[in-house]
Design a protein that fits this description.
Helix content of chain A: 25-40%
Largest interface: A-B, 42 and 35 residues
Number of strands of chain A: 12
CATH architecture of chain B: Orthogonal Bundle
Strand content of chain B: under 5%
Structural class of chain A: alpha/beta
Shape of chain B: globular
CATH superfamily of chain B: ABC transporter involved in vitamin B12 uptake, BtuC
Helix content of chain B: over 70%
Distance between the termini of chain B: 27 Å
Number of domains of chain A: 2
Radius of gyration of chain A: 19 Å
Number of domains of chain B: 1
Number of helices of chain B: 14
Oligomer: heterodimer
Order of helices and strands of chain A: EEEHEEHEHHHEHEHEEHHEE
CATH topology of chain B: ABC transporter involved in vitamin B12 uptake, BtuC
Number of helices of chain A: 9
């Protein structure tokens, strides 16, 4: 089942063309990594997929229905979006911030129900931050805040997850466990994950597919073993990359500068 | 364990109930206090006479007189506090306030111009309203881009904030200009208007309707306000129509400010200090904050006005001087406790 697709998508930044003619789709159960240099249009693409900004051309469809035709609340039950950064101006508690992700399920109700609380606590536990539930979000460390934000994403219970650098600010152990959780969601619950990340090894370990962006309009999409080739990656990332096999896993390392 | 749902709701009911009781007590206190104090024992009888529409006793007439002014103070304070709360949610900045955006400065330009031209009291009110609405529309036109959801990235609403600060500065210079050319005899009333004064402010129905309408809108949007306060632009992905909500908050806030300054002049600090204090005491959840802030704002201004007319009685102070003198230190205290 096609979860999200683009048709002839054109993304621009000022006069620059970032992505051109993107015909792409992600099926249920697939986990996509978007890979590219800084400024290649990764976040722009993800924000466009989320409906946060309009494309310069082409169209995005979720569940076969163009984004524009979705009522916002219904769409919010289909896809969740993790922003790259956040700024907390007010002293909301962790549990309040996660409960806010239940907004699309409430329609006209004033208060959340006990089922919302159960889901919020479950999501916090999945991110190992349930002990922080009563804390002010502004007092959290960067990594804790990121895990709370991902917990909110989980509490939204959508079949499609769009994540802009989910591993950002996480320590090594949590990078591995969060990525593992995302991979499990795809495998076991047939969710679709589209994420941006800079760690090629993590991306290769958990993704089923990759979308490479060059930043000048060119792109390449496909199964992980076809797209994550050292030559191709080196080309798209602007730095030669070596690949070694270790315990049946591919490890990518940047080549040393010979100069 | 955390607060479960019923306790969540019970807490809100207790807070709003307590604020309501507090507001009633403050209103009664305002009715009792003055150059001639009304003894507590006379209150029930006086209230009964007022309810019957025949204030015969001295106490009843005193309360009627003072209650009229106290009610104006209440509706003005409630409106200013709610306007501040909405502006803070809109700009995602706990230090925002309708004064920062120049809406009340616009009202002041209108009112002072009318005073300068020796217009009637009614014309002064009309000119104040016109000035406030004019500045609000100007801001909206200049910062329209910011109101739409989606496009502006993190911190994008600052265009509105910066535009407001500059428009406010422009209005202030016009005010200074008018004050400097105003004839001696009219200067005092102009200064009192600028500081904000409730003496002689008529009790009208319209401010109550504006406050009620804005309160209903804010209660209806309270959950969406939480989502926007937490997630900014990304609130769109949670099903909130961010653009529409921002427009609604902006216009409701401008209307509340316009209605408040029209009847009472440019009273400062209420829109800043009251939402801040309520957030400090009750947390940032707008479902509790909205009703609590309106009640607290009303009660605060009634209290300030009671002080303004009694501190150096028989002389009366402009209430705006009192709100600033109480507001500024309390605000600084909160700010520093918060930063610790």
């Amino acid at each position: 089942m096609t979860m999200i697709s683009t048709r002839d998508l054109l993304l621009t930044a000022g006069k620059r063309t970032l992505v051109q003619g993107l015909d792409w789709s992600a099926q249920a159960g697939e986990c996509w990594s978007i890979i590219g240099r800084n400024g290649a249009g990764k976040s722009t693409l993800l924000r466009t997929l989320a409906g946060l900004q309009d494309a310069a051309g082409g169209a995005v469809a979720i569940g076969g229905r163009p984004l524009k035709d979705w009522p916002l609340e219904e769409l919010a039950r289909q896809r969740a979006f993790l922003a790259q950064s956040r700024h907390d101006a007010f002293a909301y508690t962790v549990i309040e911030s996660v409960l806010s992700a239940r907004h699309p399920y409430h329609a006209k109700r004033y208060w959340e129900g006990s089922d919302d609380h159960a889901i919020a606590l479950q999501s916090l536990a999945a991110m190992e931050v349930d002990d922080l539930a009563a804390r002010d979000v502004r007092t959290l460390s960067g990594g804790e805040r990121q895990r709370v934000a991902i917990a909110a994403l989980l509490a939204q219970q959508t079949p499609l997850l769009l994540l802009d650098e989910p591993a950002n600010a996480l320590d090594l152990a949590h990078q591995v466990s969060v990525m593992g959780l995302l991979a499990r969601l795809c495998r076991e619950q047939h969710k679709t994950v589209v994420m941006i990340g800079h760690d090629l090894n993590l991306a290769h370990r958990i993704s089923t597919h990759a979308l490479l962006l060059m930043g000048d309009g060119r792109w390449q999409a496909g199964a992980i073993d076809d797209t994550m080739q050292p030559a191709l990656l080196g080309d798209y990332l602007g730095h030669p990359i070596d690949m070694i096999e270790h315990d049946g896993r591919r490890i990518f390392i940047p080549k040393e500068d010979s100069a | 364990m955390h607060a479960s749902i019923p306790s969540h709701r019970r807490r809100a009911v207790i807070i709003v109930g307590a604020m309501l009781a507090f507001a009633v007590v403050i209103l009664l206190f305002a009715g009792m206090t003055g150059s001639i104090a009304v003894p507590l024992a006379d209150i029930p009888d006086a209230l009964r006479q007022l309810a019957a529409g025949r204030p015969d006793s001295l106490s009843a007439s005193l309360i009627e007189l003072r209650a009229g002014r106290a009610l104006v103070a209440f509706v003005t304070g409630g409106a200013l506090a709610l306007a501040g709360l909405m502006m803070q949610a809109l700009l995602r900045n706990p230090l925002a306030d309708p004064y920062v955006l120049g809406v009340s400065a616009g009202a002041a330009v209108g009112a002072l111009l009318a005073m300068l031209l020796m217009a009637s009291a009614l014309m002064v009110d009309a000119a104040a309203l016109l000035g406030a609405v004019g500045v609000a529309l100007l801001l909206y036109l200049l910062a329209r881009r910011d109101m739409r959801g989606g496009q502006a990235a993190e911190g994008g609403v600052s265009l509105l904030l910066l535009t407001g600060v500059i428009v406010s500065a422009l209005c202030t210079s016009l005010i200074t200009l008018m004050l400097s050319i105003a004839p001696e005899g009219r200067l005092r009333s102009m200064v009192f208007w600028l500081i904000g004064d409730l003496a002689g402010a008529p009790l009208r129905l319209v401010p109550w309707l504006v406050l009620l309408g804005a309160l209903l809108f804010a209660m209806k949007s309270a959950r969406a306000m939480n989502v926007v306060a937490l997630h900014a632009e990304a609130a769109v992905t949670l099903g909130v129509r961010v653009g529409a909500l921002r427009k609604g908050l902006f216009f409701a806030s401008a209307l509340l400010t316009a209605s408040a300054v029209t009847s009472a002049g440019a009273i400062g600090f209420v829109g800043l200090i009251v939402p801040h204090a309520c957030r400090f005491a009750f947390g940032p959840d707008h479902r509790v904050l909205v009703p609590a802030t309106v009640l607290a704002g009303g009660a605060f201004l009634v209290l300030c006005d009671t002080l303004a007319r009694t501190i150096i009685a028989p002389q009366q102070l402009p209430v705006g001087a009192i709100t600033a003198m109480i507001g500024a230190p309390v605000f600084l205290y909160q700010l520093h406790r918060l930063r610790k």
